[in-house]
Design brief:
Its main location: mitochondrion. Belongs to the radical SAM superfamily. Lipoyl synthase family. Its cofactor is [4Fe-4S] cluster. It is an enzyme of class 2 (transferase). This protein is α/β, with parallel strands linked by helices. The chain has one domain: Alpha-Beta Barrel (TIM Barrel). Helix content is about 35%, strand content about 10%. The chain is built from 13 helices and eight strands. β2, α7 and β3 form a beta-alpha-beta unit. The N terminus is likely disordered.
Length: about 400
């Protein structure tokens, strides 16, 4: 799928996304802050102990300078961690920070008409993304965004959170799609692309060849283009992971979706935490030096803060560079209900915690999705900085 973006500057971005795509507000922490954003007292800088860069060393640092589980417990006790959703018979309104904008505006109309003209499927519509109105109309930043899937619009899995249609035998992929997609992206003058797809368990290579071919054709047409691939787990097949990892991409992304303890309740039975972690580890091993790995999880599925922290630790131990956190939104009454609405303050605490754990970038907020808005620009600048250092 594609994100077609137009900017007030001369640059624009196209993204092609996976069915669970989550937004990235560009917010880079430059110093540690006190945990409670509601506190008016100045934060006190605590000297960082010299700890080895191991999981034990990170835990030691976190104990001194970062949000702790007791802090999250205090937020819960003070009703500052989340907002209740009510009951089936008596649902409560969404909190103000979860209000969605109504789609509209000239950019929204232009993108919608162009996508219909090209007969392209968008994840924005298929998954009922809560940011569709903001992305397609440009929002406050003037950045217009749309999302298109490759490998068709029908997934072979049935995760409880996703609204993309499913089938055991979806139509075969269009063999000309990698060429057509590459030529279309190149002609639109984009400089950062995110490629994603539905799961294709029906294919012998899980769709990995299609992914790799699309990336390679893009790199042939635009060698300087930065490419992020947000991929399925390929059932943990090392050959599939290696094929995509070595295709020329710059960011290998795969979403673990939720904490380890809730995997079976949230995702399709063919997916699991261990398999996803192994995929991210293999990608880091197979990909050329400098390739970033990235994952995302949803909050509000019934997880607890300690489960989130333990999951973050395991993700970081797998060498993942970028992690994002967003609020789960129920696509329809047929899907898994929302357990709670996590507050922006709690999301921000996870962001601080993640940066202190050693992630190179963490995006965390109620409306965050794994690829959205200015976040790609930060990742782009990070890759370019790495290249500059390695060539000096």
């Amino acid at each position: 799928m594609f994100f077609v973006r137009s900017f007030k500057s001369s640059k624009s971005i196209l993204q092609i996304h996976h069915h669970q795509s989550l937004p990235l507000p560009l917010e880079i922490p430059i110093s540690l802050r006190s945990l409670s954003s509601s506190s008016s007292s100045p934060s006190v800088q605590t000297p960082k102990p010299e700890s080895p860069q191991t999981l034990a060393g990170l835990r030691e640092r976190l104990a001194v300078e970062s949000p702790s589980l007791s802090d999250f417990s205090r937020l819960r006790e003070n009703d500052e961690y989340s907002i209740e959703v009510g009951t089936k018979k008596n649902p409560l309104p969404k909190p103000k920070w979860m209000k969605e904008s109504i789609p509209g505006g000239s950019k929204y109309t232009k993108i919608k008409n162009k996508l219909r003209e090209l007969k392209l499927h968008t994840v924005c519509e298929e998954a009922r993304c809560p940011n569709l109105g903001e992305c397609w109309s440009g929002g406050e930043t003037g950045t217009a965004t749309a999302t298109i899937m490759i490998l068709g619009d029908t997934c072979t899995r049935g995760c409880r959170f996703c609204n993309v249609k499913t089938s055991r035998t979806p139509p075969p992929p269009d063999p000309n799609e990698p060429t057509n997609v590459a030529e279309a992206i190149a002609s639109w003058g984009l400089d950062y692309v995110v490629i994603t797809s539905v799961d294709r368990d029906d294919l012998s290579d899980q769709g990995s060849g299609h992914f790799a071919e699309t990336v390679q054709k893009l790199k042939t047409l635009k060698p300087d283009m930065l490419i992020e691939a947000l991929v399925p787990d390929f059932r943990g097949d090392p050959g599939c992971v290696e094929k995509v990892s070595k295709s020329g991409l710059n960011v290998f992304a795969h979403n673990i979706e939720t904490v380890e303890e809730l995997q079976i309740a949230v995702r399709d039975h063919r997916a699991n935490f261990k398999q996803s972690i192994e995929v991210l580890k293999m990608a880091k091993d197979y990909a050329p030096a400098g390739t970033l790995t990235k994952t995302s999880i949803m909050l509000g599925c019934g997880e607890t803060p300690d489960q989130v922290v333990r999951t973050m630790e395991k993700v970081r131990a797998a060498g993942v560079d970028v992690m994002t956190f967003g609020q789960y939104m129920r696509p329809s009454k047929r899907h898994m209900p929302v357990s709670e609405y996590v507050t922006p303050e709690a999301f921000d605490n996870y962001r601080i915690l993640g940066m202190d754990m050693g992630f190179r970038y963490v995006a965390s907020g109620p409306m965050v999705r794994s690829s959205y808005k200015a976040g790609e620009f930060y990742i782009k600048s990070m890759i370019e900085a790495d290249r500059s250092i390695s060539s000096s």
